[in-house]
Amino acid sequence: METPLVELKSVSKYFGSVIALKDVSFDVRPGEVHCLLGDNGAGKSTLIKVLSGVHIPDEGEILVGGTHIRFSSPKDTLDKGIATVYQDLALVPLMSVARNFFLGREPLKKTWFLRQFDIEYANRTAYKELSDMGIQLRNPEQPVGTLSGGERQCLAIARAIHFGAKVLILDEPTSALGVHQASVVLKLIVQSKARGIGVIFISHNVHHAYVVGDRFTLLKRGKSAGTYQKNEISREQLLNLMAGGKELVDLEQEIIKLNNGKR
Amino acid sequence: MSLEVKDERVRAVPLLGRLLSRPELGAIAGTVLIFVFFGITAGDSGLFSAKGIVNFLEVSAQLGILAAAVALLMIAGEFDLSIGSMIGFAGIIIAIPPIMWDWPVWASVLMAFGACAFVGYLNGLIVVHTGLPSFIVTLGSLFMLRGLTLGVTRGITGRTQASGLHEYSAGDWITPLFAGQVFRTPIRWLADLGMIDKRADGLPAISGIPVSIIWWIGLTLFFTWLLMRTRFGNWIFASGGEASAARNMGVPVARTKITLFVMTAVAAALFATIQVLVTGSADTLRGNLKEFEAIIAVVIGGTLLTGGYGSAIGAMFGALIFGVVQMGIFYTGIDTDWFKLFMGAMMVVAVLFNSYVRSRAMRSR
Ligand SMILES: Nc1ncnc2c1ncn2[C@@H]1O[C@H](COP(=O)(O)OP(=O)(O)O)[C@@H](O)[C@H]1O
Ligand SMILES: [Mg+2]
Question: What CATH class does A1-92+165-232 carry?
């Protein structure tokens, strides 16, 4: 089996008396989409913050490419090829697509004695990278504010990939999107996977997750409720697990018993 | 668009649509309107004679130097209201040491630039580290600087003005840089060719172009380049457009803003240097209301008050409108009381126009 790109082993994280994560193990391999599912407050965001270097875990270990590591900052994590696309996407609506694409990492060219921002290269590259991923821009100089929600999500993902992400962490990338927009983003996830990138896909939506996912990890109240390969679990089983299916089944049984007793 | 883009969904963006997405369009249109207006009403009053043109350009140049810097700061999402009293402050620093203690003028000018840069740095530092609105922080410095300047000047000289600086500045090497005139020879040629009118004594009506106009144009071009063609320019737009996004992408937002506060303060020092060396005097009350005049010029120039969008070229046209209207009203003999009414109304119209343009440009498909 391939070594995971990044791996958490029995990680715990406490916030005072709150146990946000307890003994959770999680990993992602090259060319794999690993979905992280769970209810509100289950600890999904805490888990990805541990993975992206925002939180340092209280217990457990982190391995990158098989070696032990201690992230010192989000910047450090980014340098190791682990890119997180947060829900706010880190885009500036009034600025052009190309300027956003290279925000903070502007390409320079030397003219005479000056080091200038190479806007032509930025336009050309942003346009090409996005069209390679199936997003056709009208113009790389159009403001990001004129893009649809799905296109913005794709821009943020394409940017992370262009700058060498090996692991892509996506926090609910489809939750605010309509059916068509969401499918554009899901397509991009499949493409990233085809490029050998390990994708960690956080979602509430089992339908979206099941379409693109290879493995599924369920978080419940800070603990892992199991990791399943796609061939081990059906969409319905996953749905039941997610929706507290067991509790519902138990409830159903009890109602049946009660009814039988009455009869 | 600099790219050859082949895609069936790409439609040719009409020229008007493309122009409408440029921030300075409104100011350029306004400039044309103002010129037409005064061309009709003030055609033979001398406003458009060589002397009249130099007069309004000089007014525009001084305000434009401030406006260029204020535009960049405003695009980064911040205000600096302290520049008005910074001008009085710098002027006094320039004038008093030579007059009172025989300092060379270049040394006092250098000190004024240094002192202003330091105050600008403090402004920026306080804004960035407290998270307070720059409007409030610099309103505080506006009053403090004015009070400090008044107190210290009266303490040293017993008065609130200092005059007679020409005596000291005339021989200083620094004077031609800020108060000199350029293009004297071409002006004489043009006068000989009859393209510039001559005075009764046979000399051209103007002896040259005030160097402040060169500073204005040079600074505007430099700031435009900075904004559009450098990494720092991208950071300016991002800091004002969405500071948290910029920070997440590794943009040093705090450093960018502090740098711009320093640049604005230095522009105020430049304004003061030009004014003091041209007039030969300083007054603690100089620069009064310049902070707002600069904001008006910048807003007329298409920069958004909320930051993230704008241009230095626009601010240049805003300042030009300011100068033409001010001198135009003077030349046509309209009571100058009307000037402020006119500029205030002009700004409101500009804001309405610009927000319309903005919403058009940002219209989602
Ligand atoms: N910085 C924090 N300080 C204190 N408690 C926190 C903090 N972050 C998360 N928590 C708590 O940890 C638990 C898990 O939260 P979170 O990881 O955000 O869940 P999810 O993203 O799955 O909805 C919640 O009970 C939350 O209140
Ligand atoms: Mg969450």
Answer: alpha beta
